Amino acid sequence: MRVALFSTCIGDAMFPDASKATALILSRLGYEVVFPDAQTCCGQMHVNTGYQKEAVPLIRTYVDAFADPSIDFVVAPSGSCVGAVREQHEHVASRYGDAALVDGAKKAAKKTYDLPEFLIDVAGTDQLGAFFPHRVTYHPSCHGLRFIKLGDRPYRLLQNVEGIDLVTLPNAEECCGFGGTFALKNAETSAAMVSDKARNIKSTDAEYVTGGDSSCLMNIAGSLSRQHMGVRAIHLAEILASTKQHPWTPTTAAYSKESML
């Protein structure tokens, strides 16, 4: 079965390790992982700020890359971008595109999954043989929580990681304050929100904070660093890819020691 990896633009630029870890996890499960070179941004930023027509070329690029019938599923390490693909693409294509784009958007969206969704709902497993002997707290991103409704899937995956000390994050469901251009247009509010999030993370005495969206992790990591809190942000996929044989460390990630199937 062929699974295409959608790395997302912010993930590719800021958290490439998450995409590589995702590919490794899928490969270990026996999937043929492919990476369409033409992929780019999902267009969410454009749509969310009112530039829906300008998002059409990006939606078309996504459709061209992933609606290919030889691709069985598309997996992304981002609930935010998966939400945009599933909830925005068809709507925008209907308004500003053509019938072919609408059809392609439907087909691509139907087979696009966030990593925890795919692992539990499609692969049918929450046991990945992961090993991560550290104290960790989890931040559920707004889009994962409310847009695609991940529910307890990420927690189920983390709870089955050997050696992990998973601690509950106070006020976990509160937004980290990023929200794409929200952080630019409402900088003071955004800064206050992420400062609250960082303090809650610090209160858990966790070594790491994890989550499923690179944008949230980037924002949270920046606040943790500015406040010298000594907590590292790491994508959920990197924890799930870490094993006893190939453990994750800050300098040597799991995927760097293991060949893809």
From TrEMBL:
Official protein name in the record: Lactate utilization protein A
Organism the protein comes from: Corynebacterium pelargi
GO terms under cellular component: cytosol
Annotated gene: lutA
UniProt superkingdom: Bacteria
GO MF terms held by the record: oxidoreductase activity
